[in-house]
Amino acid sequence: MNTYTYTNVPFTVTEHVSNANGFLLPHNLYNKVKTIAAYPIKEFYLQDAPDLADFKFKMHKNAFLNDELTIQAQLIKKHDNGYLVNIIVTKPKPVTNHHETICSALFGFTLNQDYVKEEKTAC
After folding, report:
1. Which of 15, 21, 34, 81 has its CA 20 to 30 A from that of 1?
2. 49 Cβ partners below 8 Å, 6+ apart?
């Protein structure tokens, strides 16, 4: 696999995903990130992407009510047993024109031959 698949998804922190003080609740971000992690690998499966085999999830900073975040998912590796997808959640910092990392994650999906699309080979 020589090509890498990227997905960028905007995410706004709302009252539904934050606590009474306006802090983004980590379990709500995890659920969103987990869903988006499957986006880069969907094209390889005939049906829905398989369940997660393994994951690492780390919150680096807090996000607050009305923050505009970007969830970036990247297929980084295909191996014999499945796929690895890297996730980075960032928030722009207007003063410095940089993005700060809110969260990072790595998800592993198993490779089940019953669900995988057959790759066409050139003759």
Report:
1. 34
2. 38, 41, 42, 109
Q: Which residue has the tokens 């706004």?
A: 12
Helix (H) or strand (E) holding 122: none
Domain at 6-110, CATH homologous superfamily: Hotdog Thioesterase (3.10.129.10)
How far is CA 24 from each of CA 19, 83, 91, rounded to the nearest angstrom?
7, 29, 13
User: HSE-up of 100 (CA within 13 Å, CB side)?
Assistant: 12
CA torsion 44-83-57-88 (nearest 10°) is -70
Domain boundaries, given as residue ranges, for the chain: 6-110
Q: Are 25 and 19 in contact (CB under 8 A)?
A: yes
